[in-house]
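Researcher: I'm preparing a figure for a lab meeting and need a structural model of a single chain. I don't have an experimental structure, so a prediction will have to do for now. The sequence is pasted below. Please return the structure as tokens so I can convert it later.
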Amino acid sequence: MSYDTPLDDDRILIKGAYLLTQDTALGNFVGDVLVADGKIKEIGRKVEDDRARVIDGTGTAVLPGFIDTHRHNWQGALRNLGPAWTYEEYRSQVQIGLGQHFEPRDVHVGNLTADLMSLEAGVTTVRDESHISNSPEHSDAAIAAHWESGIRAVFDHGWPSTEAEQWQFGSARRHPDDIRRIRNEVLPDDSARVTLNAMLRGPELSTPDVAEQDIRLARELDLRISMHVGLGEWGARQQAIRRLAEAGLLKEDMTFIHCCTSTDDELRMLAAHGATASVASALEVFMPGLGQPATNRLLAAGVRPSLSVDTETIVSGDMFGVMRAALAYQQLIVAGAAGPMDRVPDLPTFDAADLLAFATIEGARACGIDDRTGSLTPGKEADLIMIRLDHANLLPATDVAASIVAGGHAGNVDLVVVAGRVLKSDGVLKGGNAHFEQAGASRDRLFRAAGIALPA
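Model: Understood. Here is the structure written out token by token.
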């Protein structure tokens, strides 16, 4: 049986919800959404279908599912370990210290844990930045978890976390060749619910020659590319985006992650070449050593960014916190208390409606899947969420977008649908919490392998 055979093939008709469509032709209005055959069949002010299961949307908002364009899912069972860690402490404790001890079963558990947390909080698509490619079996376990969870996933094949220091900051090692097997045998279908991208190190984390060879490999395999750039003082010195532009390698198939210390000129180069960006605003304000969120500087350069969680070892795995962190840092800019790169006049600002767009349609564009998700557009895949506006923390919901951004949390997410399949209903995630016992067992095994004292 195909992984994508629908398990819930009901026709669903949501009636009377406030629709935040993220489709500029449709706008926002109170209306109905019909889901059939895994797609958004119809949307309007009065939709009828005698065969559909009707869901009362009164007192709710319906919008596209959130799209997280950068999360290291393999760390899902290690969540909340170090909210006060610096970037160097995170690298030492997780990537270098624990990453080498991961077995394929730990990757599967971590990915599944992260996926379920994502779905619980209304994230229907995750771009899984998988730098745990310690073996082909590790990558296969990561991919299998995405199929199992029901989430839409872009699996970004990365490098190993064995000999982690040999794979970053000037590395002369080429991207693992197993990406060819995955492309040809495991994820060849770019229209499937789980697809393949390439997580490359670029000239900031590898030598220029290796960066070029890796990029050419990804393009030979017809894969979109993600790349971490602008990482603290090192990123400011390396200027990876500039190097790519000067080498003729900067193109629209690239998503640049963080960009914290990328220069304004580099951000304009990114925009001029049609590339996209992912801001991990919560992680960037929590973790010293990266720099500050580049959201406003990206807007000034002509780039509407997407948003991402990054790692749950540091921050919560939901997009509500990411949106609020971006907004909080913007207010520091407005108050004149931001970092030095943001102390320039007339930086453009954004509002709650913009943040919802960053978390949905802009995420779809960054992943190259905006033709099938990211907005409530008839014909697109039915990836949508319903948020209860009649919960105490959101009432009276005077401005719907502002209420969701300022006050929303996972408990307000009442319904989650991915490709027409209901994965959360009446506020309850299907499958319950049984899996999270496996996450605890995986954490304990990893701690023992690394010689770390187990929690009391």
